[in-house]
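Sequence only, no structure available. Ideas?
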Amino acid sequence: MDPHRTDTAPTPAPAAHATQPGAAAQPTPAIDRTIRPAADSPAEAEALLRLVLCAGPAAPRRALLTRSGGAQAALAAGEVVWRESGLDAAQRRALRAPPDEAWARGRDWLADPRHSLIGWHSPDYPALLRRIDAPPLALFVAGDATLLWHPAVAVVGSRGPSVGGMDNAAAFSRALARAGFCVVSGLAAGIDRAAHEAALAVTPGRTVAVLGTGPDVPYPRSHAALHARVRAAGVVVSEHPPGTGPLRSHFPSRNRIIAGLALGTLVVEAATRSGALITARLAAEAGREVFALPGSIHNPLARGCHRLIRDGAALVETPEEVVEALGPCAQALATELRARLCDGGRTLPTADLRPGLAAPSSAGVRTLDRPLAAPPDGGPADSPDHQRLWSALGHDPTDMDGLVLRTGLTAAALSSMLLAMELQGHVVVAHGRYTRRTPPSPSAPEGASQGT
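Reply:
I predicted one. Tokens follow.
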């Protein structure tokens, strides 16, 4: 039985785990809701791992994290606070004594510098994902975690598509990647694979693979090489701990993360009873755009798309239609990322990025690439680190190592700042090298080509 197949809608996913051994009960510490633990703190990551390794509903653990302000504080809070937060007896026992094998495996996985664990309480938690029903307690991330904040489109569909469906998935994914979007999919056979491979073929190709297994377990196994390529050039994400194998129940809940990370979901080919339709429904329920490609009335894999169109999904025939529809949402996400960087991650995101509430724009996502002479006033670029980076950037392409040497900043810090600058149209990246975007000539007529 294929664990991807499901004919019923998923219930809001119980995060498959959560945990950390408990400390003796003690008075609840005063809670500072503005200052958050460092996202890269090993002690905080290990505390969060213990919370994730505790089986049971995720909602009480999210409440515990919110109440405590961090994973270490949550574990130190003790039995009384755990009980008041809604953790049941089994969860409290697991907090006191986590499973040894899973704990050791998780710690070994976190030892890799390209691996991270981002909790619900962290300002680095993806802003769009935070807004769905039952967001994951935490995300195991292998690769470039900054891509989780990048404007993205989910491309989903059948695991056994037609040749035309594969061609369409590849063509749309390439075009979306070239337009600056990240392509999100589930690393499954068929449409998912075509979407990931097409995005990786673009420079720079950005893609996110959301797994229904642990972050270190490719599924299907034949996609191990693709898993490694996505991990190296993009990012692999899972809510399940390392070592978790494929379970039927994990894949419908995985779909909510695919929908939640994206500004919109594109369904290429899908039967009337398909996991792709679940992803589309979850996207619509989260207030995201849903797009569907029409097909032949004789193709059974087009019927799911036709059903979506009848139910209100946007019929699209070209990638440009998707780009134009999502441009305003991408601008709103870029604004929130700038705000998150400006305050140093001290506060959690609050802006609503639903398409209906986004700032209007008619220029599509390419409005994010408009050349500007200098970073905007009053934004994060006014910080000393951003000014240092801006001074280090020239009109000749510079790689990350060069920027590290010029600025004295870490690659992780530079990556976040460069992403924000790229989204705002100040920076161009090509072949792993960064350069300032050249402003247009004041005398250039509107619509004239704007070189870099």
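The chain is about 40% helix and 10% strand.
Hope that gets you unstuck.
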